[in-house]
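Anyone able to model this chain together with zinc ion?
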Amino acid sequence: MAGWNLQRGVITDYNPDEEKLWSLFNYVFSDACSKRNTYKFGFIKSLLDNAFNGMENSEGIFFSYSQIFARFAENYWNLVVKYDLRQMRSDGKSVYSNVEKILKEAVDNSVCAFLEFSSLDVIKQSSVISRVASECRKYVVGALYNDFDGVIYSFDLKHDGLVLNYRVYEFMLKYKSELERLNYYSWAKFLESVNEDNAVVHLLNKLEFATPRRSDLSIYREILRMEFEENTCFYCGRKLGNKIHVDHFIPWSFVKDDKLWNFVLACPACNERKNNRLPNREFLAVIEDRNKQIIRKTNNRIVLNEFSGYSDDLLIKMWNYAKMSGVKEYSLKT
Ligand SMILES: [Zn+2]
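re: yes, here you go
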């Protein structure tokens, strides 16, 4: 558990090559890297899920602890509350880690045990997130820094977040799907060793389904429709009728996040035909232009918040990486 009590750390190598990064990630996923609980997997997953939300600064890409641990808490909520999967090797005193205890307590105090995390009231959500964050700041941030030989990020627990090494950030975008799968595999292996056989049925599916996903996208539809007067289908240009679909331009299956800049309004026919695929490259210029206009026009705080971390070349980068990770392209030209 070396490193868990580190208070701060600086990046030890700003220019690691891919071989070095693969070696470090493979080490962290392996059994050789010590783990009493699954926090390290949960933390890597939260970084991957937040990959497109960081803010570039002079040193690298900044991620706030609150954005990382909001994801962490919600993901664990599903694993612990919904699927009842233990996340720690019993230490003789307890079979539950502190994060599991925090989540279980939150359930005990609520009316309904099968609540979605997002349906808890906002005050309760933020209290859970801040308790989870303080536990993880203490036990994961320094430990993982140490496991990566100081290459992955710089951090100071007194600050609001960490700064991901720019090379690591690029690597994580490029190999997002591969890293996700390796992380799931190692996480599943750990879970199999600490859970009863009946709890680990469909384990990999449970890990994948634990990723929080908004089912109600109506707030995005209203913002795009009302605030930016989008009345036509983004793809075919026909006037939108009563049924307006909100489409993830780059599919959710790759992004694992819901952000306004990746949403377009589409007619049901285009949305259903496109499904989980990438639109033609030509649409990249159109959505980039649309996003530029949104940024120029708005002073709505919700909208601006959605755009934190967005940059001009982000969608093209995502498009290329999604394609590389096997997402198919679909011709939407009419
Ligand atoms: Zn259409």
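The mean pLDDT is 92.
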